[in-house]
Amino acid sequence: MPSVKRSVTHSIARTLFAIVLLSVFSSGLALLTLSGSLRDAEAINLAGSLRMQSYRLAWDITSRSSQQAEHISQYQQTLMAPALHSLDRFYVPDAVRQRYHDLLSSWQRLQPSLISDQTEINADRVTQIIHSVTQIDHFVLALQHWAELKMRIVALTCLLGFTAIALLVILTLRHIRLKIVGPLRQLLSASEAVEQTHFTLPPLSTDLDNELGVLARAFTRMSGELEKSWTAMSQTVRAKTESLTQANRRLTLLYACSQRLSRSVEGREAFQLTLALVRRHERLNSIAFSVPDFGELSAGHSDPQLPWHSIPLYLSHQPQPCGVLRWQAHSSEPRLMQGVASLLIHALELWQAQQQVQTLLLLEERATIARELHDSLAQSLTYLRIQIARLKRTLDPDAAQAQSVVAEFEQALVAANQQLRELLTTFRLTIEPASLARALEQVVLPLRQQSDARILLQCDSDGQLQAQQQIHVLQIVREALLNAIRHAHAEEITVSTRRGEQGELTLTVADDGVGIASQQEPPDHYGLTIMRERAARLNGTLSITRSETGGTCVSLHFMPVTETVFPAAVIAVPPSTRSGSEA
Q1: What class is the 8-192 domain?
Q2: What is the pTM of this model?
């Protein structure tokens, strides 16, 4: 294992080996000492018997016993017994060996005299024997001290061995606590901290030279790497979360705008509410949406100190921009505003398509009515004119009264036929779905070819009306222009439009002709009445005035409808139930 100088397992193994070795040594020494004491009791008994035998020899000498030789032999055997003879070893104390040698020397001097003359009573020999008893006592006492010394050695050896083992165990436990248990607890605390994503770890024992030191250093490096990875991952997650939050916020806004613009049939109001929603959601200072169909729609208040950001708007079928989306904000997301612009463009295209559909449906319905009028009422009037012509040929030229009545019938049929032709022209008026300015231009263009008067068009409102409204406005303008061309003898006719602050629309047809004589229509004429009815259907007012210098001014004032009303299904009405004013 790299960087490991003192392995934990080797240290513990060495400590256990030392404990075993110490216990074996102390036990072996004690056993060895005890094994050397196995014949101590025998030696003490033999030494004690020598004292008894000395007294017996003294008795034999004084009593001249016949067993003296036998007792001398027994004494000799006892003194040279193996238990006593083994005391003559190097490990036996000098005092014991010296006492034993003294006994041997004393016996060697006494034995010849005892053997040579066993019949005489010699006081010196008895005295020597009594003196040997004293030596035996000293020898026995020396043996006793030697035996006690060996017991003390055994006890001391056991005590020292136990003390050394206990001390070694204490040192081992302390070493384990300092080198193993403490670092393990530190690692456990560090692992718990890492588990709770706290990478600022308490100090670990990285200076150890064992496996735990290597592990502590590796854990410290690992925690550092984990902290870096966790920090990077947290930043990535935070960035992704912020990105997803921004995306969710953008999608929420785009969904809300899509929901609002899905009701684009409401026209101007739907776009105005969408702009207010975007401004409130994005905390914009101001936002504006400019297209020819609605003019400029805005929400919020502009700040002259902030720059304007803009996105040009392109319809799918036009290469040139049809409008612009502008906004003011301290901070904004161009991609989000680009998405809002796309939604506005799609909603505008949808609204234009709906307006075209409504206009086409209305024109188709009016064309159907015109065909039915042509196939029914026009044919009937033509038939009546033919019959009147036949009747005139059959009448007597002198019948003045009959000729007068027929002439009146013919004049009435001519007027009815003319009014029917004008009505058919009105119903067959085909205006392509377009803005109000282009629609007025389409109305004015053919009338310029029918008159020498200059017809000027001044339109400052380029919005587009709802299909029903646009038809009524165009018919009122057309009727006013036809009246100016036919009856006013004007040199210049001006058609102008003006949009008010609240969105109301004022349309004026003014000429420099002779001026209208009276606002009461002649009999069998319904032009002014139809114009007023159309103005009432627009929820507006129609005023016809004559200026002091001459000329007539026809003014229409109304509020454009923001909600599109789909026309009812075309129902074929029998010719007999129709009237010119209803057409």
Answers
A1: mainly alpha
A2: 0.46
